[in-house]
Write a structure and sequence with these properties.
alpha/beta; Arc Repressor Mutant, subunit A; D-Maltodextrin-Binding Protein, domain 2; 3 domains; 5-stranded mixed sheet; 3-stranded antiparallel sheet; 10 helices; globular; LysR family transcriptional regulator; DNA-binding
């Protein structure tokens, strides 16, 4: 008798594919690592194929896993659409949502549009500030939910995914690794900024801040003008900029954690629905 693909198994599978790490995948979907491992084993038994190659240092998706991932995302999307349709009459209200400017500009617009199409009675009030400023606003009750970034060793909130960072510059930029590096970065307290500066300090390369701003558009223009290089998350990289990773003078960068913060125990039902949606959508694609 043919066994059907179960939603919970697919959700764990997609999380592993996004994070390439069982511990991080388990954190993202609120399960234990052993439970996620067991769910993957059950899914591989149903599929009759090995979906990941695992060793102590890495988790790599197989060709069979890549093929299943396409259908898994479709099934999860259909499941969420069906639930959204059933919940639509009762889901209404205002969500005061906070997010950094870079994510609001490049990442969140299509997600919010898709959510609003399923929940037309839910309205948003969007506040764009840095993570370090948004977290106190949540504590004071000024916003209901926020998207924030943290260094991978200081993870907080409900993890949606881990994001790669890249050194970026203008297409015609030529670097002299013996010279002080001019940087265009987000303000103090930003985990992306801190990751870049720590990396430079580790190789003892001198640097200066040429531009410090919350505006990702201003950073892009500063970099395009050749006045500086920057560090950016993979999901918001403008096509106009060139990645410098691996070149002399540009050390490897760590991943950062992207997480959703809200008062799970006390939030309104429509905020909880949005939190589940946000974690699910962001976790499907690894940055």
């Amino acid at each position: 008798m043919q066994r059907d693909l179960e939603i919970d198994l697919l959700r764990s599978f997609v999380a592993i594919a996004a994070h390439r790490n069982f511990t991080r995948a388990a954190e993202a979907i609120g399960r234990t690592q052993s439970a996620v491992s067991l769910q993957l084993k059950r899914l591989e038994e149903i599929a009759g194929e090995r979906l990941f190659e695992r060793n102590r240092s890495s988790v790599e998706i197989t060709n069979s896993g890549e093929a299943l991932l396409v259908y898994a995302n479709r099934i999860l999307s259909a499941n969420e659409a069906a639930l959204a349709h059933m919940r639509r009459p009762e889901a209404e209200g205002l969500i005061r949502f906070g997010a950094p400017d870079d994510y609001a500009s490049y990442l969140l617009a299509p997600l919010l549009a898709a959510f609003s199409s399923n929940y037309p009675l839910i309205e948003f009030e969007l506040t764009c500030e840095s993570s370090i400023d948004l977290l106190p606003m949540l504590e004071r009750g000024e916003i209901d939910i926020l998207l924030a970034t943290h260094s991978s060793d200081q993870v907080k909130g409900r993890i949606a995914r881990y994001e790669s960072l890249h050194w970026v510059a203008a297409p015609d930029y030529v670097d002299d690794p013996d010279q002080r590096l001019s940087l265009a970065l987000f303000p103090n307290g930003c985990s992306v900024r801190e990751a870049g500066l720590r990396a430079l300090e580790q190789i003892e390369r001198p640097w200066r801040i040429a531009c410090s701003t919350r505006s990702v558009n201003l950073i892009e223009q500063t970099v395009l003008n050749g006045a500086a290089v920057s560090v950016m998350e993979a999901s918001i990289l403008p096509e106009t900029l060139r990645i410098l990773d691996g070149q002399p003078g540009f050390p490897p960068l760590p991943e950062i954690a992207m997480s959703v913060h809200y008062n799970k125990a006390a939030c309104a039902p429509h905020v909880a629905i949005f939190a589940d949606y946000l974690v699910g959508e962001l976790g499907r694609v690894r940055g």
